[in-house]
Amino acid sequence: MDSVPEVPAGTVPEAPAGGAFASPAAARAAFRAGLVRPTSGLCPGYTQVNLLAVPQEYAFDFLLFAQRNPKPMPIIGVLEAGQTSSELLAGGDIRTDVPSYRVYRDGELADTCSEATELWREDMVAFLIGCSFTFESALLAAGIEIAHISQGVNVPMYRTSIPTVPAGIFSGPLVVSMRPLPASQVAEAVRITSRYPAVHGAPVHIGNPDEIGISDLASPDYGDAVEIPEGHIPVFWACGVTPQAALLAARPSLAIAHAPGQMLITDAADSRFQVP
Amino acid sequence: MDSVPEVPAGTVPEAPAGGAFASPAAARAAFRAGLVRPTSGLCPGYTQVNLLAVPQEYAFDFLLFAQRNPKPMPIIGVLEAGQTSSELLAGGDIRTDVPSYRVYRDGELADTCSEATELWREDMVAFLIGCSFTFESALLAAGIEIAHISQGVNVPMYRTSIPTVPAGIFSGPLVVSMRPLPASQVAEAVRITSRYPAVHGAPVHIGNPDEIGISDLASPDYGDAVEIPEGHIPVFWACGVTPQAALLAARPSLAIAHAPGQMLITDAADSRFQVP
C-alpha cells in the first residue's frame, strides 16, 4: 500500500490564484502550457475526475472491476486506445491537460511529470473516474460544513475490512473517505449524495468505524486526520483511491494517473450527474 | 441485420407446462437435462437475462459498448474467461443451463444446440444482460395490459434512427421494443419502468414513431406486429436486441447467445433491480 501516494496536506481548500478560469477549456489550456496547481475550487459547477490509464492488456479487467464496484469506481468516461480527447474535454488532450501526472511502473511510483505525451503508449486506455468534489459542492451549497475543507487539510481516507468484488487481476479492500457531521445533518447529507451515484453516491457506512475495520480515525491510511467535534458522527463514502490501490497492487507494467488533488477538469456540468 | 433472428411468434405468453418449477435452480436443472422451451412466465419474481458470450479479444470493446449504452445493454453480470458459474446461477453452468443456444460464426447463425459445453472456448466471456420481462411483470402487477401478451405474440421491435455510442468495433442503431398504451396509463408506465434502470429503464420515446425513424409500426424489424387500439400511444423502450445486432454486425469469429425467448433464469429477485 505504500505505493499509493498520500495526498499532500493543504492542497485542497485554495482559491484560484490570479482569479478564476473562464471555462474548463481555459483551465486545461493553462495546464497544457505548464501550470501546475491543485484543482480544488477551480471551474465551479464543472465535473473534475480522476485519471487512471493502463495498457490495453489490463483494460478489460479494470473496466469489469469498475462494473462490479460502481460506488468506489464510477466511470465518467473511457478513452480507448489511440484516443487522446473526447467530448468530455473538447479540443483537449488527455496526455497534457492534467496539471501533473504520476507514472507507475510495476506498481511503484517511477516519475512525476507535467505532461505524459512521450510516455503515452499507443495502446493506453484512459479511465475517467468520478470524484467527490462534485458531491462536496452539493453539500456545501446545502449549508453542510465539510470538516477537512474548514480545517484546511485533505480528506481523511481509510482502508476498510469491506472487500471489493474482484475482477481478473484486480481486487482489494474498499477505501473510504470520512466526513464528520452533526447528527442533525446526516440524513440530509445522505439524501444529497444519493442523488450523485456517478460520483460515489450515498455513504457506505455511518457511525462506528470498528464495524468496517477502522481502528483509529486519527490515523488515516491516506490524506489527513480531521478534528471531530463533540456530537459529530463519522460518515463514510466509497473513495476513488480504491481502484488506484487495486490497480497498483496488481503491479501493471505501466500506469499513468493524475497527481493527487490535481484532477482533470471536464466540460461536463456537475448537474449532469444528478438523478431525481 | 438478417442474421439477427426473429423471435418466433407465440412463444411468449405461455404458462409452465406441467406446473411451475420450485426454484430457478430447478428450472436450470431441467434445462441442463435437456428440456427446451420458452422461459416467459417461469419462476415469477426471478430475473431472466439475455446471454451473449464472445472470445476475450472482443470482451473489452463489448463491455465498453455496454458502459456507453446502458439503456439497451444493462449488464446484470459478467462471467470472466474460465468462469462457468456465478452467484447469479448458484450451482449452475452457463454452458448448459439455458434451454437452447444459438451459435454464430463470423456474424452468421451457424448452429442451434441445447448445450454449448463443447463449443465453449476457455477464453469465452459471458455477458448477462437485463431483459424486459422484469419490467413487464411490474407493469402487469400495476394493472397495465401489455398488448403483445394479450394478443399472444412476441413484442414488436424496430431499428431506429437513434445511433448508439460506438465502442471499438461495435456500433449501430438503437433497437427499441414497442408497447401501445392508453394515454391515461403512459405516465404510470414511465414511472414504473423508471424504477428498473437495470432492465432498460424508462422509455426512450413516446408517440410519433417517425421521429425516431420508424416508418411503419405494422412492419417491425424483429418480433411481431401488434394491433394498436384506438386512442393508444406507442411507447418505445431500449431493447436488448441492440447489443446482439451490434455484436453480429461486427462479425466476431464466434458468439454464443440464448435462443430467442429462451432466457437464462437467474437466482436474482426482480426486486433487487428496483430503485426508489
Concise description?
Chains A, B: It is an enzyme of class 4 (lyase). The structure is a homodimer of 276-residue chains. By secondary structure, the first copy, chain A, is an alpha+beta fold.
Strand content of chain A: 25-35%
**Apparent shape of chain A:** globular
**Under the CATH scheme, which class of the largest domain in chain A?**
Alpha Beta
Quaternary structure: homodimer
DSSP E strands of chain A, number: 11
Helix and strand element order of chain A: HEHEEEEHHEEHEEHEE
Sheet having the most strands of chain A? 7 strands, antiparallel
The CATH topology label of the largest domain in chain A is PSTPO5379-like
CATH superfamily of the largest domain in chain A: PSTPO5379-like
Arithmetic mean of pLDDT of chain A: 91
Query: What is the first-to-last residue Cα distance of chain A?
Result: 38 Å
Largest interface, C-beta closer than 8 angstroms, per-chain residues = A-B, 14 and 14 residues
Enzyme class (chains A, B): lyase
Keywords (chains A, B): Lyase
InterPro entries (chains A, B): D-Glu_cyclase, Putative_hydro-lyase, UPF0317
Protein name (chains A, B): Putative hydro-lyase H9634_09100
Description:
The structure is a homodimer of 276-residue chains. Chain A is an alpha+beta fold and 276 residues long. Chain A has 2 domains: 24-131 and 250-273, PSTPO5379-like (3-Layer(aba) Sandwich); 134-242, PSTPO5379-like fold, CATH 3.30.2040. In chain A, 20% of the residues lie in helices and 25% in strands. Chain A has helices at 24-32, 56-68, 133-141, 147-150, 183-194, 241-249, and strands at residues 46-55, 75-79, 101-105, 108-113, 124-130, 157-163, 173-182, 205-206, 232-238, 255-258, 264-269. In chain A, strands 1, 2, 3, 4, 5, 10 and 11 form a 7-stranded antiparallel sheet that branches. In chain A, strand 3 (101-105) and strand 4 form a beta hairpin. The longest helix of chain A has 13 residues, at 56-68. The radius of gyration of chain A is 18 Å and the shape is globular. The N and C termini of chain A lie far apart (38 Å). Residues 1-19 of chain A have low confidence and may be disordered. Chains A, B: Pfam families: D-Glu_cyclase (PF07286). Chains A, B: Belongs to the D-glutamate cyclase family. Chains A, B: InterPro entries: D-Glu_cyclase (IPR009906), Putative_hydro-lyase (IPR038021), UPF0317 (IPR016938).
